[in-house]
Amino acid sequence: MDLEQILRDTRTVAIVGASANPARASHEVWTYLKSVSDYEVYLVNPTVSEVDGTPVYPSLAELPVVPDLVDVFRRREHLPAVLEETIAVGAKVLWLQLGLRDEQVARDGAAAGLQVVMDRCLKVDHARLLG
């Protein structure tokens, strides 16, 4: 899997599990992407309505666009549901952040035509490959 190609082909990113807490990794990745990348970044979390003035959407289905890449900050038990949502909206890439790995989700995602990246930090890889 060519991470650099995935990052170059990506135009829109949805961060699932976005947090308003600046100490959380999802907040750090969002802040980084909006400041240094050309990506349109959308935040998704049903329990938060906005982060620093940016609207947060309750689900992928409610985004105004189809995200190219879905960056996931959720506990492992939530990954199958996030995968279903990712497939349903027509995204191309499911990116599981550092520490997230689920072989069944990866197989199911690949079978549905998704590129699945596991246990990688989008911020770190973007900085390393495109920074």
Automatic annotation (TrEMBL):
Top-rank taxon, per record: Bacteria
Entry-linked InterPro entries: CoA-bd (IPR003781), NAD(P)-bd_dom_sf (IPR036291)
Record-annotated CoA-binding domain positions: 6-100
The protein's name in its UniProt record: CoA-binding protein
Organism: Mycolicibacterium holsaticum
